[in-house]
Amino acid sequence: MSSNIKHVFFDLDHTLWDFDKNSGLTFKKIFKQNAIDVELKNFLEVYEPINLRYWKLYRNEKVTKSALRFGRLKEAFDAVNIKIGDTMINQLAEDYIVHLSSFNHLFEGTFEILDHLKPKYELHIITNGFDEIQDKKMKASKIKDYFKTITNSEMVGVKKPNSKIFNFALKLANAKSDESIMIGDSLEADIEGADNLGIDTIHFDYKNEFQNHKYKRIVHLKEIKQYL
Fold first, then answer.
1. Up-side HSE of residue 97: CA atoms within 13 Å toward CB?
2. 5 phi/psi in degrees, rounded to 5
3. Cα separation of 6 and 66, whole Å?
């Protein structure tokens, strides 16, 4: 680890903010509100991989935001053999965005590691999430004040791993690539994207799925202390 690191960039969803847990609670709420009779556990089992696939398409400019929001729900309901009309799917998609930031579980160790890093480094966020919801998530979970800058893909017009979003974030932070490190859960979007620009990286493999790759890897946020 280079000793000249001055800037630490974090991804938000699946890295600090526990997306899967908060998303599941949101679905539980909006299904009840809209009287949708579905076994939540079964739905989430099919929805989560579909959602990840749609986010990859969205990152690569293959689907629009509205197509992502509709398509991931439509495919998930089809997969569990529940017939839901398009109007209701659109209603659920809207309700999901409205209520998602009302649940704010963070990964274990989030405050501990931010308190550890804050006195020593300038902290920043780079996220592919939607502008209107990421700010709400950070305020409600009480982590926003830790970060000097927040870059989201809608500000830049491209998504990680596109180099433009990293360059935008570096400029906004007044940071150089060789003084910076990126911490995130996505090998493609966060780690390879940053590495391509010469930014140091730590892969947060919270599901403990990747045993062998060339990047520094942690399975718990507190392990960042080994490196920073």
1. 18
2. -65, 130
3. 38
- Residue 143 and residue 162 in one domain: yes
- Please give the single-letter amino acid code of residue 148: K
Q: Is residue 125 over pLDDT 60? A: yes
Give percent of the chain above pLDDT 90. 93
- What is the span of the domain harbouring residue 93? 19-100
- Residue 110 in any domain: the answer is yes
Is residue 2 in a domain? no
Q: What average pLDDT does range 195-205 have in this prediction? A: 98
**DSSP per position, 122-155:** EEEEEE-S-HHHHHHHHHHTT-GGG-SEEEEHHH
Query: 149 forms bridges with which residues in the sheet?
Result: 124
Can you give the C-alpha Rg of the chain in angstroms? 18
Same domain, 190 and 120: yes
What is d(CA 134, CA 24) in angstroms, rounded to the nearest whole number? 17
